[in-house]
Specification:
The protein is an alpha/beta fold and 328 residues long. It has one domain: Glycoside hydrolase/deacetylase (TIM Barrel). The strands form two sheets. Strands 1, 2, 3, 7, 8 and 9 form a six-stranded parallel beta sheet that branches. A three-stranded parallel beta sheet has the order 4-5-6. Helix 1 packs parallel to helix 9 and helix 8 packs parallel to helix 9. The radius of gyration is 19 Å and the shape is globular. The termini are close together.
């Protein structure tokens, strides 16, 4: 279907909503301050290298106040058995601020506007409430209402969301039809390797986590795929597999970080030569711990893309654009 290689990036944009039970404030204030500061740098690089990117954004970030968020929130909220996972439970215990300026880790309309102003950026869904599709206690009706709330939030910016990334990669096949009903035409799916099999109610065991970590350094998984492998089924979105998670820089593994970046660049070159799709993803907040070092790593990846574009004709495409190629 494609006669050139494709380079896709999708980002899980969530700020504090992505880990309210794991990252306490103000302990992580500097981390999220750095995240907000590095996002314009990332967008500048994307514009400079003409990178088409999907920003899967938690719907709560679209708002500028607690009142606005509550106005768009679904009435039927997720009833997780573990209440600590619920962003609504967090709000009940930690009242939100009255503006983005006062509460910049839970509201981000200024950053969303910056994304929309940058060429080739797709604003997409990471659900409204960072919804966990495989957690005990939630149900399909709650998920459907969450997606409806996400579309209402996006409408504040005159945007219709057509791509979705499942929070924490909790891909749930039986929810795909609901996604399609709510306007979603592409979703990011997990690689087919056994250690990425955390779909539906599969248990995410320690061995799976260890293999996913090791895969960043040594070849254990399939990292590119032909566009012809993606299928279009009536009333279901196109599932676009992830290739590689861009693991952030850590001072504890300085030399290993260079190995990770070089491995990604080598995988991109294979995809370009074989005219396949390479799908890289991470969270913007992954850059919050060491922004400068992570920007350097990303710059090397984008410079590699620029070279592969020149040598092999590789092109950049976001998730919506890849789905349109499949659906045409």
């Amino acid at each position: 279907m494609n006669s050139i290689g494709l380079f896709c990036i999708s980002l899980d944009f969530e700020l504090h909503w992505g880990g309210v039970e794991k990252r306490s404030l103000p302990k992580y204030d500097t981390y999220f301050d750095n995240t907000r500061a590095v996002i314009p740098e990332i967008l500048h690089l994307f514009e400079h290298y003409a990178i088409h990117t999907t920003w899967a954004t938690v719907g709560m970030l679209f708002h500028d106040s607690a009142n606005s968020l509550e106005a768009n929130a679904p009435k039927n909220k997720p009833t997780y058995s573990n209440k600590e996972l619920s962003t609504y439970h967090y709000i009940d215990a930690n009242p939100l601020g009255i503006s983005e300026q006062e509460d910049p880790f839970h509201f981000a309309p200024s950053l969303i506007n910056l994304i929309l102003k940058t060429p080739h950026q797709e604003l997409s869904s990471h659900t409204f409430s960072h919804y966990y599709c495989n957690e005990p206690g939630q149900n399909a009706t709650q998920f459907k209402e969450d997606l409806q709330a996400a579309q209402r939030a996006a409408a504040l910016f005159n945007v219709q969301l057509t791509s979705l990334v499942f929070p924490r990669n909790q891909f749930r096949a039986e929810y795909l039809k609901i996604c399609y009903q709510e306007g979603i035409r592409s979703v990011r799916s997990n690689p087919s390797d056994w250690f990425w099999n955390i779909n539906n109610d599969e248990v995410d065991t320690l061995p799976k986590k260890l293999f996913r970590t090791a895969d960043a350094y040594i070849p254990l998984s399939k990292t590119s795929f032909a566009l012809s492998e993606l299928t279009s089924t009536d009333h279901f979105p196109v599932s676009i597999p992830a290739s590689r998670f861009l693991r952030p820089f850590s001072s504890k593994e300085y030399f290993l970080h260079n190995m990770k970046i070089n491995r990604i660049c080598a995988e991109m070159e294979i995809a370009a030569k074989e005219q396949k799709v390479y799908h890289l993803w991470w969270h913007p907040h992954n850059f919050g711990g060491h922004p400068a070092q992570n920007i350097l790593g990303l710059t090397k990846i984008l410079q590699t893309y620029q070279r592969l574009q020149h040598e092999y004709g590789m092109q950049s495409a976001n998730m919506a654009e890849i789905a349109s190629m499949v659906l045409q």
